[in-house]
Structures are given as C-alpha cells and as structure tokens.
Automatic annotation (TrEMBL):
Gene3D superfamilies reported in the protein's UniProt record: lambda repressor-like DNA-binding domains
Biased composition (Polar residues): 1-20
Record InterPro entries: Cro/C1-type_HTH, Lambda_DNA-bd_dom_sf
Source organism of this protein record: Micromonospora craniellae
Residue segments, region Disordered: 1-26
Superkingdom, natural source: Bacteria
GO terms of molecular function: DNA binding
The name this protein goes by in its record: Helix-turn-helix domain-containing protein
Pfam families reported in the protein's UniProt record: HTH_3
Domain HTH cro/C1-type: 65-114
Length: 121
C-alpha cells in the first residue's frame, strides 16, 4: 500500500531492522519495548491502553520518544523510515492500514487485542 497524502494514510516500509539499534535508550536488552508499558503507563493524561485502543499511533510514537527513543529507533522498531515517523508524530500522516497496525503491535510486543486487532475475551 502506498502513502496517500490526501487521505493522510500510509503503509509504512518494512525495510529497516531493529537489531541495528540495540542499546539505544529506551530499549530492553533484547531490543523490545517494555511490555508493562502498554497496560500500566500513562501519557499526556491518558492511559497507554486508551491510546492503543484508539489506534493513536502519533501518541504512541511520542510516548516512545518521551522514554528516550530516537526517531531512528522508533522507525527501526516499527519497520518504517524516520521521515514516516516524523510525519506521523506531526500529524501529517495517520496509520490506518490493518497490516501496518499489526506490524507495529508485533514489533513492539503490544498485545494485539489492545489495538482491536484480535478478539480478546
């Protein structure tokens, strides 16, 4: 799926690997986000669970930056480019593609159900 500026949606590239960013601030030893964040943390007055439920990827990326992740680290972890991360953070692009949302959830160890991507009892 290609980026469409009019609809502000994007299918982000999978060309980068997170392994090259091991050791960057905010990364755990095994190159993953802390899974407890998605349930227990808050950002800008909202729980991260709410941010994820609303699929607010801009807030998700801003949260990661607040935890010390660079845009390069966010891009690598989610299979996107720094330019795409910047556009999402700035609100110039929205992530609405199921495949991209699924990839972000998988690569950040976000339980899919928190983003409405799977049935959760």
């Amino acid at each position: 799926m290609a980026m469409n500026a009019r609809t502000a949606t994007t299918a982000l590239s999978e060309s980068q690997s997170g392994s090259q960013f091991a050791g960057l601030p905010g990364w755990r030893a095994h190159n993953r986000a802390d899974p407890d964040w998605w349930i227990n943390e808050h950002f800008e007055g909202r729980s991260l669970a709410e941010v994820l439920r609303q699929r607010d990827i801009s807030s998700l990326f801003r949260f990661l930056k607040s935890r010390g992740w660079s845009q390069a680290a966010v891009a690598a972890a989610t299979g996107t480019t720094e330019n795409q991360v910047r556009a999402v953070i700035q609100g110039r692009q929205r992530v609405t593609s199921y495949d991209v949302l699924e990839r972000i959830a998988e690569r950040l160890d976000i339980p899919r159900g928190l983003m409405g991507l799977a049935y959760v009892p």
